Amino acid sequence: MNFKEALQQQVLIADGAMGTLLYSQYGVNSAFEGLNLTHGGDILKIHQAYIAAGADVIQTNTYAANRIKLNRYGLADKTKAINEAAVSLAHTAQIAAEHRVYVLGTIGGIAGVTDTEIEPLTAEEIDAGVQEQTTYLLQTQAIDGLLLETYYDIDELKRALKIVRALTDLPVVANVTMYEPGVLQDGTPLNTTLQDLATLGADVVGANCRLGPYNMSRAFESVALPKTAALAIYPNAGLPDVQDGKTVYDSPAEYFENYSDTFRQQGAHLIGGCCGTTPAHIKGLVAGLQSRQPVTTKKVTLPAAEAVPTAADPRQHDFLQRVQHEKVALVELDPPKTFTTAKFFRGAQALSQAGAGAITLSDGPLANPTISNVALAAQLKYQYGITPLVHLTTRDHNLIGLQSEIMGLHTLGIANILVITGDPAKVGDLPGATSVYDLHSVELMQMIKKFNAGISPTGRNLQEKTNFAVGGAFNPNVRNVERACKMITRKSAYGADFIITQPIFDVTKVHELRLALDEQGITTPIFVGVMPLLSFRNASFLHHEVPGIRLADDTLVRMQQAEVDGNEREVGLQIAKETIDAICADFNGVHINTPLRHHEISLELLNYVQAKNTVSV
């Protein structure tokens, strides 16, 4: 009897976690899949322990055995060998078993894992990894089916399923993973997702990981029995704890046993365990089954209807409206490093009254601590009636903190955000500080846009939609501007409503940027950066020490001569105005970086930009 036939006739018990057991032995920095080649005996013992506990189905130790994830450990060139070894070990345990055991070749979700510090993986790169690993698993001719597991991104899972289905007729199990019981991270109900996966050709559809038995059971109450597929349920062993620096799961096997028949009654034909589960938990699942007979009918409990998120209060992103038909300058004003804020607010008032589209507030510039830009933004908005544009870095906030910041900004009515990665902590005043970087900037843009749809990153209904205008940063100070402009296209695809560039100190770069944007058909509003130079020393520092900034040779020569002539500030201001002339010839948007909080200099440049609107009229 093959795996598919067995599933139709009886409830099968699958194995539990592999990584949990290996983690307890080898720690978090180990490439668990690489152990197939170096510690195969330990992998074999785990397979045998699960079979002895009563598992009818075991999975290969290949969850992360794709080229992308293995590359993090320098094992990409061993992708084929690792997959082959994993299948061989599982097959060895299979043929030695005293009862019929089926082997599934496991392929885990990839999205969110990067092999570069620059940008997230593309769908094409992910799909190539799935296709390669599937091919290696199938070439062994020693597996009874394939298991696609731990997919948070439903689009990724659907693509993977199509790839796998095109390569084999073997049974395929497709398991999604939820943050919230009963709903995917994009807000799609679990029931809808599983029915879709069945339609796409999965033989078994279900969920694994993240949720313990209680919440997994809740999630499946609203799942109808698919017409063309069986159901699978693989819960975690409850919530993890941290003891002595290690992640542990304390949920007893007896608790798991209590849910075994509940899962069967909810329609599961395949029941196993995920993170934290051990052979003892699987033995509990076997003991808890009151019957091996799959249920054929089920009463579905529909979830309570949730309110449709309401649209946010109308807020005009005025500078984005204006930049379509006139010259608009945004002015960056760094938050103070001390509690003396009077000069900051005076400067912001003067700039706003002169017509600044928004006051942009950096977030720890050059990794130096300042007063919270969110706190200052709230004061600007409500005490002075000034439009703030808040920078939000991925350097200083983990995933939890970023979501809290976004929700807080919306609650404060602050609707303009510039998403940036942020300078590494080691370059600032506190080099021992930790840089987080849980997300790339484009991923944070994508997250904010989900809030605009009224959905949290976990899929939770937020009951209200945000209304953020999200900007992205761009550095035109590179050799090949045309190639670099592809990043603007990418950021626009992820949701960027506008782009702010690094300061330009070479007017030829301005025209190069315009040509490149036109060539690629990029229409996203661009605010091109300009920063007035205060002195030759200031210019030299920016050129040699600040990442992403390069000055033209002529600019350096002029500032050096100005040092001799004693008119550095005047020459620096003149260079900035020449740059603005070049910018305004090709763009409507200007971003003025205030040098060392000298707002009076930015004010002069702002008036210079504003005068161009009068001339054009």
Describe the structure.
The chain has 617 residues and is an alpha/beta fold. The protein folds into two domains: 286 residues, TIM Barrel (Alpha-Beta Barrel), CATH 3.20.20.330; 290 residues, TIM Barrel, CATH 3.20.20.220. The longest helix is centred in the C-terminal third of the chain and has 19 residues. Strands 1-10-7-6-5-4-3-2 form an eight-stranded parallel sheet. Strands 11-12-13-14-15-16-17-18 form an eight-stranded parallel beta barrel, surrounded by six helices. A two-stranded antiparallel sheet has the order 8-9.
Main traits of this protein?
18 strands, eight-stranded parallel beta barrel, 2 domains, TIM Barrel, eight-stranded parallel beta sheet, single chain, 617 residues, alpha/beta
Helix content: 40-55%
The counted number of beta strands is 18
From the alpha-carbon coordinates, what is the Rg to the nearest angstrom? 29 Å
Approximately what portion of the residues adopt beta-strand conformation? 5-15%
Report the sheet with the most strands, covering strand number, pairing sense and barrel closure. Answer: 8 strands, parallel
Low-confidence stretches: 113-118
Please indicate the count of domains. 2
